[in-house]
Write a structure and sequence with these properties.
The chain has 162 residues and is an alpha+beta fold. It contains six helices and six strands, in the order βααββαβαααββ. β2 and β3 form a beta hairpin. α1 packs across α3. The longest helix is centred in the N-terminal third of the chain and has 13 residues.
Length: 162
């Protein structure tokens, strides 16, 4: 966002979930499997509710966190921490909604593989992550057979043999 002449301020506060208003231009949606994983994540680590507030405008219209609100409602939560933003123009709000939902970057598989267990990552919702050809147990070169391996491209699901 370009620097604004309007001063943008924020205030963190706990509000009733029922007071929040879903924007009618939220472009993101998740499927049932992802929604259930989000609910599990919030159940397993409820402090995330405090560590990652919902972003709302001055009228309590949700700019970021729609899916978490739906999951929290489904789990029976009554209130939630919000970061209320004052002073954004309508254009800036629209820009925030898009930029807040834009996933960018790639996982560093070496760091993940060396610092976390696969089961741990899967338990946290990273079940679609592909470490490539990382084996659970190291291969014994003496036991190598001559059978080729089938590999699947993580981007396009194209299968190929080596």
């Amino acid at each position: 966002m370009a620097k604004s002449e309007i001063e943008v301020t924020t205030k963190d506060e706990v509000v009733k979930i029922e007071a929040l208003i879903a924007t009618d231009i939220n472009p993101r949606k998740i499927n049932r499997e992802a929604f259930d994983a989000l609910k599990k994540s919030l159940t397993d680590f409820p402090d995330m509710k405090q560590l990652r507030p919902i972003v709302v405008d001055e009228k309590l219209v949700i700019l970021g966190g729609h899916q978490r609100i739906y999951a929290l409602k489904d789990l029976g939560y009554i209130d939630v921490l919000v970061k209320q933003v004052f002073g954004l123009t309508e254009k800036q709000k629209r820009e925030f909604i898009i930029k807040d939902n834009t996933a960018s970057g790639d996982w560093d598989s070496d760091i993940l593989a060396n610092n976390w267990e696969m089961a741990e990552l899967e338990g946290w919702g990273l079940n679609k992550f592909n470490f490539g050809d990382v084996d659970e147990e190291p291969n014994d070169p003496a036991s190598k057979d001559d059978k080729s391996k089938v590999h699947t491209c993580p981007n396009c699901d194209f299968e190929f043999e080596d």
